Amino acid sequence: MLPKATNHIQIEKLLQGDEDTMKVLYNTLFPKFASYVKKNRGTYSDAEETFQNALFQLIARAKVSGVTINTSFEAYVFTVCKNLWLKELNKRKKEVRNEGVFELKDETEDQVASILAQERWELFEEMLTKLSDKCRLLLKEYFNKVPYHVIVKKFSYATENAAFQRVFKCKKQLAELVKNSSKYNQLTRS
Amino acid sequence: MNDELQLKIEQYVSGSMSEHEANEFEKLMNANAELKSAVTLSKQLNFHLSGTMDDTEVPKNEYTDKLKSFIESEEAQELKETLKSVQLERRVPKLRSKRRRFILVAAAAVIIFLVSAIGLLFPSEQGTDKLFAQYYSEEDLPSVIRRGNDNTLLEQGAVAFQNEDFADALAYFKEYEASTEEPDMALYLYKGATLMELSNYYGAIEEFELAIDSESIDATKGFWFKAMAYLKSGDVANAKYVLKDISGHVWYYNHDKAKELLKKLD
Fold first, then answer.
1. Mind listing the pLDDT tens digit for each residue in A55-80?
2. Which of A98, A114, A128, B199 falls between 20 and 30 A from B45, CA-CA?
3. A77-86, A111-120, B91-100: lowest mean pLDDT where?
4. Cα–Cα–Cα angle for B230, B207, B265, nearest 5°?
5. pLDDT tier, B54 (very low <50, low <70, confident <90, very high otherwise)
């Protein structure tokens, strides 16, 4: 089985199990990632585990559906690692709060869930670029918990209700864009 | 989907519905697959826009079956093993080959020892302790006094360290680390030195590696402290490996001392 849309030689090499490519990633990117994890409630061991899982998931995805990268390879891998760590943090936060019922997922299921989460992340980022600049910025401010009165002033809305309506419409527009993409069905529908 | 229903989805997802309203909405959702999908998407978008990652259940379809099948394949397991071995190699550079060589050298040493009945060819545990005492100095740790009050916790940690209250020092360093996005590089050296005092050598080495990776002006101090940690733990082979690295770079901290110590260990 050949990768379908892999546009980076490094991914091809990872797929072939090329140790030199892995070593380069471990020597250049891992230290930065370990620093990031340590600054974000993790340990060096967390960084090692996450980095390894992220590379493995990237390989699996490249093998099955291909990966198209629009930035540098290093920047892309760093984002994949960072997102996987955020997912892990979110999982730990839920466990601490004991929210909901936790099923013990097997390792394969967990790996697939992480691959799909990364693919959704990329899809959502892509769809966000299709919104107007104002809509995109408004959503980011709103979800970063910027107070309504600040949003009203910054975006020159007449009232807080007008600001809320705008947020609502922008999010609805984003949801429509995502829903209409064929990729989203593959990531969500059974 | 009309705006009224969309608004209800937002209320449900944001948790602003009353318990009764939420129960009614859930009944509606369980009977309407399209509504359920819209709720899932709304939650996923909220996660994304808030800068976190969602944890949606894995659907069962052709794509996920293919992923699972690859992940469980022999090819994937081999790739995983390769990744693991590269990671292990990085953790302690050339550890395995060094260790193999070390075992051979150690075996030879035992034979020589038995034949010559002297134990002076390789440094004894007492010898490494002596060398550590001779070469390790807290004065090699950087100053933590900075302009402004940002480093109060770090400074308190350093004071506790100097007073040999190592458990307190560690608590201050952890608190400082948790309180800042970009810790001062001195943290890693102090935290490593503290862990070393608490005999947690592996933890100390991790911290010194972070200092090395920090790309700060004092980053090469990390190599020296890492060598010291190996020496104190009695791991002469790895201490020598790090010291050789320092000896090979004139600009590394304590370059001359490293060369001198290496000679004594050889």
1. 999 999 999 998 888 888 889 999 99
2. A98
3. B91-100
4. 15
5. confident
H or E element at residue A37:
helix A30-39
pTM of the model: 0.62
Shared-domain flag, residues A116 and A145: no
- Per cent of chain B over pLDDT 70 is 83
Q: What's the number of domains chain A is made of?
A: 2
Same domain, A10 and A93: yes
Distance from CA of B202 to the nearest CA of A (A): 11
Question: In three state form, how does the secondary structure of B99-110 look?
Answer: HHHHHHHHHHHH
What is the tens place of the pLDDT at every residue in A134-189? 999 999 999 988 888 899 999 999 999 999 999 999 999 999 999 999 889 888 87
Q: How far apart are CA A166 and CA A177, in angstroms?
A: 17
**Residue A104 sits in the same domain as residue A141:** no
Q: How far is CA B169 from CA A172, B176, B178, B232, in A?
A: 51, 11, 14, 20
Tell me: do A148 and A167 sit in the same domain.
yes
- At residue B118, φ and ψ (nearest 5 deg) are -125, 150
Q: For an interface test with A, which of B87, B91, B202, B208 has the most A Cβ atoms less than 10 Å from its Cβ?
A: B87
Task: Please tell me which residue of chain B has the smallest CA distance to A121.
Answer: B48
Residue whose structure tokens are 């304590």: B254
Chain A residues with CB inside 8 Å of B63's CB?
Answer: 64-65, 186-187
Residue A159 structural domain: 131-190
Contact B53 A32 (CB under 8 A): no
Rg (C-alpha) for chain A, rounded Å, is 19
Residues in B closer than 8 angstroms to A142, CB to CB, are 49
Mutate to test the interface with A, among B9, B26, B35, B53 (most CBs of A within 10 A): B53
